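Record format v2
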Amino acid sequence: MSHNDCIFCKILDGEIPSAKVYEDEFVYAFLDISQVTKGHTLVIPKTHTKNIYETPPEVARELFARVPKIASGIKDVYKPIGMNLLNNNEEPADQSVFHLHIHVIPRYGDGDGYSSNWTVHTDNYSSEDLQQMAKEIKDTIES
Ligand code: AMP
Ligand code: ZN
């Protein structure tokens, strides 16, 4: 269902133009206007869902099922040396459009336009800490 004031729903409705990469009953893929790297593509469900938390399993299943084919197509055309998938949820995590989307970002090497920062904190957690944290999460998921 189309959602008021959602720019991606407007793209789905054809109210806003887009560069279509793929479309079927459940999913639409189009070039991200920012083109962080050449071929940067967004894959979205046709069902409006704000982000990963609100996404029913069947929408997630259909959405992610299309990603390998789309990523492989981009790989075949532009011959990137790597590919990152990215999904931002909520503003502090850089979500700016509140219609679930997966970024498919082909990589061409250092300075290609995309970078991510990881700080490794392995030394801050014992294996007991990890077991305890895993239990907290597991118990919540299962409750
Ligand atoms: P995010 O920051 O993860 O919510 O990503 C939203 C993405 O949507 C950004 O990378 C924008 O460049 C992209 N975007 C916003 N408006 C459009 C548009 N009209 N056509 C294509 N991409 C868009
Ligand atoms: Zn929407």
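Residues 53 and 59 are 12 Å apart (CA to CA).
The two ends are 30 Å apart (CA to CA).
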